[in-house]
Amino acid sequence: MLLELHIKNYVLIDELAFRPSTGFNTITGETGAGKSIVLGALGLILGKRADKTVIQDEDSKCVVEGHFDLKGLDLESFFNANDIDFEEVCIIRREILPGGRSRAFINDTPVGLPQLKQLGEQLVDIHSQHGNTLLKQSSFLFDWLDALSGVLDERQQYQEEYRKLSNTREHLQKLKDARQQSLNEREYWTFVYEELEQAELSEGEMAQLEEKLDFLANAEAIREGAINAYNVITGHDVNLLDQMNELIRSWPNAVKEHAKVADFIERMHNSVEELGDLANEMRNLSEQPDTSPEELQIVEERMALLHDLLRKHQLNEEAELIALKFDLENKLQLVEDRQQEISQLERQIVMMELNCRKKANVLSKSRHEAKQDIANRVNEDLRELGLPNAEIQLELTQNEDLNAFGLDQFRLLFSANKGSRAEEVQKVASGGEVSRLMLVMKSNLAKHKQLPSMIFDEIDTGVSGEVAMRMAEMMADLSKDLQVISITHLPQIASRGKAHFYVFKTTDGDSTQTEIRELNEEERVEEVAIMLSGENPTDSARSNARELLSRNN
User: Fold this and answer.
1) Which CATH class name applies to 1-128+452-463+481-519?
2) Is there a smaller number of Cβ atoms within 10 Å at the N or the C end of the chain?
3) DSSP assignment of 352-376
């Protein structure tokens, strides 16, 4: 429900505040006073596009701000999905800067026009004589039909199952696409995996190969050096071990007890042991078998293979090659696993489709049973609104494929004259006929489903007398369930409003401004009297105005 509308620096509006009441609000004013301007400003915060031509003072920005009561509209999911703080009183603000750039905010959070429009459609429904877009929307038509058929709860249950089915189908298709992509690449993956598997990779191997290659390349020099070192340490004539042992023995026993000397001797004993171990290693090294060119070639070829693999796959070390092999192994296994998951999902989808079809058939049955009674009720209302020969028909056909509303396709057909063939409303109905039909349909729907605030923009053109009275009654009845705002030129409708607002122009020097104010009781009598009889109403007109206004009590 719209609580407040603030407009600043917009076309002929310097600054304006509009605070409609709950229930039925009427707006009147002379042609050209600016009623459409107020409506245009409201459209800005509902997501319509704008440019800098709407700015009155080109040096200042245009600001339109609306306060909306969201209680009962179940809009928390929208706010959560868009990461916007939810408040029961929502503030929407639109700014048009002097350069033409536009900014929009919901509860002070910057948003784009798509978000603004998505929310706006759920807050306000503006309907004019030429506004038949809703009649093209399956969602509106099925909402109306199912509400009057009494199957909104059943449809909600169906749609929950259908969403699960759609999500599962989507998941299945993604799996199939991924598997097909994997199948296209599997041959290459298999080749690379087998190549790496045959390479028998082991982490750290390249370092070992490099060490072995270095040894093989210098094997003879290494052996000669080892023999020389062994002979020096343990040679038959004079060797380091004998000299060290002799040095240890040369110290007098008395001196050996001295702490510092004892430390020296201990260290020399350790050196003798270390030289012994070193001699054994030198002997082992010198006794290594002779290397052959074949052995060197084997190591070189192994190193070349590993380097080729690293270069081929743009990697740096053999550990990454091993990781690549495991990754390919997992991918190849995933191809097989996906097929199992696909088969399981396909079986699951069959069962889900059966469940959805069962629920869809229940919906179809209920709709078919109710459609003629619904059409009869609407046709009766249309006759009361001055369309005595108008007739609607509800055409339901069942498709093979499931959709968001079951198995049905729904067309609303309309004929304004006896003997005329019924066609889709938007093709054959005039603006006045569409507006009256929409008034009837919205009145029907409001009794079963929470609707946004509804604005009727001069849909009463060409209507008078008893038809105008019936239209006013229908709007008043509709306003028991939601906020209704009617821009009208008919006294019958203007008088039925719970609140009556008057749009007018004022002139100050060279400036003309559009303003709006709520009329008090006496002002309403005068305004309705003017609408009845002209600019200078008679006492009789005022009496008639009071009589019309008294019907609100």
Assistant:
1) alpha beta
2) C
3) HHHHHHHHHHHHHHHHHHHHHHHHH
